[in-house]
Amino acid sequence: METLVLKVDPQLPDARKICLAAEVLRAGGLVAFPTETVYGLGANALDERAVLRIFEAKKRPADNPLIVHIADLEDVHLLAEHLPPRSEELMERFWPGPLTLLLPRSELVPDVTTAGLDTVAVRMPSHPVARMLIKEADVPVAAPSANLSGRPSPTTAAHVLEDLSGRVEVVIDGGEVEFGLESTILSLTTTPPTLLRPGPITVEELQEILGEVRVHPAARAESTEVALALAPGMKYRHYAPKAKVVVVEGPVQAVRAKIRELAQRYREMGKKVGIMATAENASEYEGLVEVVGERQRPKTVAKNLFKVLRKFDEEGVDVVIAEGLEPVGVGLAIMNRLRKAAGQEAIRV
Ligand code: TXA
Ligand code: MG
Fold this sequence. Notes:
Distance between the termini: 49 Å
Bound molecules: threonylcarbamoyladenylate, magnesium ion
CATH superfamily of the largest domain: DHBP synthase
Strand order of the largest sheet: 1-8-2-3-7-4-6-5-9-10-11
Radius of gyration: 20 Å
CATH class of the largest domain: Alpha Beta
Number of helices: 12
CATH architecture of the largest domain: Alpha-Beta Complex
């Protein structure tokens, strides 16, 4: 299959190109498109065969459910059997935007989309391209991140093509995304609500509206000891580049020293080392160093995290050593992704 790339202005997308992509979606095809979080790989969420093709293209295990994207608030009623208390407040405050809500699913949603669960994950993205595409397609759009399963999520169309060229009909190139990390996932089917995946909307923001929010152990940004105690599925390596990832957490001074020590040790073993540093500390290290963002502005780190991981792969790095951040605010989402990329290799100094 030849993948068609449609380049559009992210703010004012060319309606003819979007209509063409929407037609492909309606016909059961796959379209990758930018959202404000990461690129998504879309299919008609109500078309079982189209959704199955997402799993094939991504090589995604069939037991991992998809998020369904809508462009109009009313469409949530098609997908959810009913709206749990507090959902309307959350939708009003955070939609369109990077918050995914788990709701009791309606009969309209096929089993393949939710992997047979009785809940459906729903999100209304804010990106103009995503909104126009879903509106034009006039169907709810199931869309996981547009990467091969297990790889870092794509934040540019080039990343999508690296993984999925020849495996999908269309890639809409709308430039680099805004946040760089996947949406926050909150379950409203528990009391209190449970944060399942930290993301751009922070726990602190959710607590402001909901009061109590339970943070699922899998969403926490804790290192090895805790990771070991989690359910087996949570120990899988995720968001993973080809290189081994080591993340070092703790007080900044100690982190720098540990990273220098580890870098030297790996180099002595003949490994090519890449250091993922914050701007404040980059001059402390030698060799291949990539600045991921500013420690003082974690959003800048979030935006570049997956991009830097992919860049190190391109450069043939064997071991990525990354500075940890404090797991508060957006830092929680960053540490969740880094810790998952590192598997067991999270070090606390
Ligand atoms: O920002 C995002 O959410 C991006 C963009 C494209 O919208 N999408 C995304 O999808 O990150 P994906 O498939 O890469 O991650 C969705 C996560 C998976 O971990 C999946 O297990 C979980 O959401 N999920 C989906 N439906 C669920 C459900 N009913 N219950 C529990 N978890 C669910
Ligand atoms: Mg994903």
